[in-house]
Design goal:
The chain is α+β, with helices and mostly antiparallel strands and about 300 residues long. It has nine helices and eight strands. A hairpin with a 2-residue loop joins β1 (about 65-75) and β2.
Length: about 300
């Protein structure tokens, strides 16, 4: 009996030791992940600050499009890319024919009906979420103590993924139009910064006109009237505008391999109390999970 007791005691002690070892290894693993996340968050913040600095350093004649750089820090590397939100199709402001052409460009068979349903939802004043996304100008001026125009603040959609509640819209279509759309743009798109897919999605434009336009734009500087004329009938949906909201895509890689991405929408307004404002911050993982971005006009 004494021998059995000793053996059982040894078994219990061994089991306890194994459990403690496993718990300790798990704790160390959690601590390592938390450390990587902290470093990644710091890198993302550094990327945001660098992107804002890049935006502020551009002169008025330089469009914030395809501007990218990489910075290396002791904890890892950060890639930053700037894109002009004005070069995208604003789902809150685009006319119905532009929305229909957008969905038609991705192969949606009921594009006209979808466009009409989107406009109907916009006209209700509350979209699909009951929230209003401030315009880029008003988000900054309101924080600076300047009264904003309420009419400009009526943005029923705060994110393109809210179109999932529009009748007839398929989830795969939302993924397809996401790179071409925004909620911080204008009624028209900026032809100097619009991606090729956006140009090709404008109403009434032919493939030959798209190719001619892109070829002409590659040889900038060029007369703006000549550039717009290359769009043919679609030129009514394009107009040069002042730079306002800029998208900052940030790719952070911690030195030990941990990877994190995010996209911010920032704006700088003359006379504002802050050098720039963050209108939206979207972790890429949140996009993949289907979560809505955090609209942080008050940051």
């Amino acid at each position: 009996m004494a021998l059995v007791t000793v053996l059982w005691t040894m078994v219990l002690l061994s089991t306890a030791a194994m459990a403690a070892s496993t718990m300790f290894r798990g704790y160390v693993g959690v601590m390592a992940i938390d450390k990587d996340r902290t470093r990644a968050d710091a890198l993302l913040t550094a990327g945001l600050e660098t992107g804002a600095g890049l935006m502020l350093s551009l002169d008025e004649d330089t469009p914030p499009n395809d501007v990218d750089t990489t910075i290396s820090l002791s904890t890892g590397d950060v890639g930053i890319r700037l894109d002009d939100e004005g070069g995208l199709i604003d789902i809150n402001k685009a006319p119905v024919e532009m929305l229909a052409a957008l969905f038609r460009s991705i192969g949606a068979g009921n594009a006209d009906v979808i466009a009409q349903n989107i406009v109907a939802a916009r006209n209700k004043g509350n979209g699909t979420s009951g929230q209003n996304a401030p315009s880029a100008q008003n988000a900054a001026t309101a924080q600076n103590g300047t009264a904003a125009n309420p009419a400009d603040d009526e943005r029923p959609f705060t994110d393109v993924r809210e179109l999932a509640s529009i009748p007839g819209v398929q989830p795969e279509w939302i993924s397809a139009i996401a790179p071409m759309t925004t909620v911080f743009g204008n009624e028209t798109v900026n032809p100097l910064t619009a991606p090729a897919d956006v140009i090709g999605a404008l109403p009434g434009i032919e493939d030959a006109q798209v190719r001619a336009f892109l070829d002409l734009r590659r040889h900038m500087p060029v007369d703006s009237k000549q550039l717009l004329a290359a769009l043919g009938p679609a030129q009514k949906y394009a107009a040069e505008g002042s730079r306002l909201a800029v998208g900052v895509s940030i790719d952070a890689r911690v030195s030990d391999g941990y990877h994190a991405k995010a996209k911010a929408i920032i704006v700088a307004v003359d006379g504002d109390s802050q050098p720039y404002r963050v209108l939206a911050w979207t972790p890429i993982s949140a996009v993949e999970a289907g979560d809505s971005p955090a609209v942080m006009a008050g940051q």
